[in-house]
Amino acid sequence: MELFFATLLYILKLKAFWFLVAMVVLTTVVQLQLPKWRGAVGERTIRKQLEKLGEEYRAYHDLYVEDAQYGLTQIDHVVVSKYGLHVIETKHYKGWIFGSENQKYWTQVIYKNKQKFYNPIRQNYGHIEALKSRLNLPNLPARSIIAFSNEVELKFKEPFRSAEVVHYRGLVKAIQQDDRLRLTDNQVNGIISNLDQLVDLPKEEKRKIKKTHLQQVRMKYSATPGKKVK
């Protein structure tokens, strides 16, 4: 009988050990995948928001455009209309966001943890320049918009001149209130025709482009601060 209970206790302990191991592995996987999941949810949210714009606007998502300086650049969203282009950089963050227009890096604060990230206004400026080059329109009327998750609290001390920084919920309003006519119908159609070529690429070519872009990003930002700030 003693042997029976000893064996049973051993089995229970063994099961408890493997349960703890499984929980540790699961927690690690969730922590690693959480930013990706947040990003996917955020992108779906933005797409649904842009669908509210109506037929006079044409939205493009996840475009890869050749950048003369850095190679391929990824543009989250581009909205084309007779009011010009609205180029949108999305940040699926939470916490407090600090920064200014001319700072190279901004800061995300969650409780006592601080994380630096590249100024998205500068980042989106590069996207706009790449679009101008591709479209061969150096004077292309394009407005930069930085859209943050509704979970963040924006702690900016000064207004921005070269971009508009909004929450997801304010994105559609930011685009619609910019209602000065800047492009003719022919110009809009020409831009749409050009960008459609990026969308209509074969799947295999798109995969190669994404892979190349990822490699370039890793090389470019290998020394970029993404560490905690003391």
Helix content: 40-55%
Number of strands: 9
**Residue runs with pLDDT of under 50 for 5 or more positions:** 24-34, 226-230
How is the largest sheet built, in terms of strand order? 1-2-3-7-9
The rounded distance between the terminal residues' Cα atoms is 60 Å
Estimated radius of gyration = 23 Å
- Give me the number of helical elements: 5
Question: What are the secondary-structure elements, in order, as H or E?
Answer: HEEEEEEHEEEHHH
Structural class: alpha/beta
**What is the global morphology?**
globular
In percent, how much strand structure appears in the residues? 25-35%
- Could you say how many structural domains there are in total? 1
Mean pLDDT: 82
Protein name: NERD domain-containing protein
Transmembrane segments: 16-34
Domain NERD: 38-154
Keywords: Membrane, Transmembrane, Transmembrane helix
Outline the structure in words.
The protein has helices at residues 2-50, 120-135, 171-176, 185-199, 203-220, and strands at 58-67, 71-81, 84-91, 95-98, 105-110, 113-118, 142-148, 152-154, 163-167. The chain is of the alpha/beta class. It has one domain. The strands form two sheets. The chain has a five-stranded mixed beta sheet, with helices on both faces. A four-stranded mixed beta sheet has the order 6-5-4-8. A hairpin with a 6-residue loop joins strand 4 and strand 5 (105-110). The longest helix has 49 residues, at 2-50. It starts with a helix and ends in a 10-residue tail after the last helix.
Sequence-ordered SSE layout with sheet pairings:
Blueprint: H1 2-50, E1 58-67, E2 71-81, E3 84-91, E4 95-98, E5 105-110, E6 113-118, H2 120-135, E7 142-148, E8 152-154, E9 163-167, H3 171-176, H4 185-199, H5 203-220
Parallel strand pairs: 3-7, 4-8, 7-9
Antiparallel strand pairs: 1-2, 2-3, 4-5, 5-6
